[in-house]
Amino acid sequence: MLVFFAVGDHGMNHRRKRRSRDAHVVPPSSGGSVVAHVLALSDELAGQLPPLALLCSELGISERTLRNAFHTETGMAPTRFLRLRRLHLVRAALLAADREAPSVSAVATRYGFQDGGRMAAAYRALFDEYPSTTLARRSSQLLR
After folding, report:
1. What angle do the packed helices 34-44 and 52-59 form, to 10 degrees?
2. Are 24 and 62 in contact, with CB atoms under 8 Å apart?
3. CA-based nearest residue to 56, from 80, 43, 32, 37
4. Which residues of 50-70 are buried (b: 16+ CB within 10 A; e: fewer)?
5. Helices (DSSP H) in 96-130: which residue ranges?
6. What is the radius of gyration, based on Cα positions, of the chain?
7. Using the 8-state DSSP alphabet, how is residue 128 labeled?
8. Which residues have CB under 8 Å from 86's CB, separation 6+?
9. How many CB atoms lie within 10 A of CB 9?
10. Cβ atoms 19, 2 nearer than 8 A
11. In whole angstroms, how far apart are CA 76 and each of 71, 72, 144?
12. Nearest of 118, 85, 79 to residue 104 by alpha carbon
């Protein structure tokens, strides 16, 4: 719906088209929460961190709507939430590794981390241990 309004400028009126304020607050067409849809898209991308513009385009929403939905539902920005989720996915993969465990680097790459050092630092800050420690602990449990 387009709304016309007049703007006063030194006695001159200009007519401008303006989208309704609620026009950008359209949830994804298939129903459900925006965060749930983003998680589904993230799962399709195997945990990779897609650009916000891609997420917005896929969902047909503005970046502001995406950010507001994440702040409302999770209390954090979408990139932070998705980064933490990927770290949890890395941890789950390391804990589920069998005797022929992949390297930490392979697991990190699978979940979209390009810089192993930064991923390891973020992992340690979150879980209070390095990912290699998690993998080594899991491997030692399998040898028992």
Report:
1. 110
2. yes
3. 37
4. bebeebbeebebeeebbbebb
5. 104-110, 116-127
6. 22
7. S
8. 47, 49, 111, 112, 113
9. 8
10. yes
11. 5, 8, 41
12. 118
DSSP assignment string, 75-99: SS-HHHHHHHHHHHHHHHHHHT--T
How far apart are the C-alpha atoms of 1 and 15, rounded to whole Å? Answer: 16
pTM for the structure as a whole: 0.71
For tokens 């340690």, name the residue.
124
Distance CA 136, CA 115 (A): 21
**Predicted confidence pLDDT, tens digits, the chain (144 residues):** 333 333 333 343 333 333 333 333 334 444 468 999 888 888 887 767 778 888 899 889 999 999 999 999 999 999 999 999 999 999 999 998 776 667 899 999 988 898 989 999 999 999 999 999 998 887 666 655
Assign domain 82-143 one CATH number from 1.10.3210.10, 1.10.10.60, 1.20.1260.100, 3.30.1330.40. Answer: 1.10.10.60
- Three-state SS string over 25-67 comes to CCCCCCCCCHHHHHHHHHHHCCCCCCCHHHHHHHHCCCHHHHH
